[in-house]
Amino acid sequence: MLTREKGIFDGVQLPNNGSMISHLFYPDDALFIGEWLKRNIRNLARIRQCFHASFRHKLNFHKSKVFGIGATSLERTIWAHILGCEPAYLPFKYLCF
Description:
The protein contains 2 helices and 6 strands. By secondary structure, it is of the alpha+beta class.
């Protein structure tokens, strides 16, 4: 589990003292939701490497995006580059044909 206590990935607290959320997994997709921290970005890059080494799956970086609520365009661009994907902006469309 990617929890704040383990120091791997800091998720976000849902409103009204709700649950902490850090990721959602779908059959062919993963969504990571977290604090805009350098440590989170570095650890996501490490998670990507572990995923590839463990399962031999290539990640499709043409479909991978970095969103940053409250982040500057420069921050978003730099952090997307670290992860090897593209910066993106809200709102966005998901699974559109």
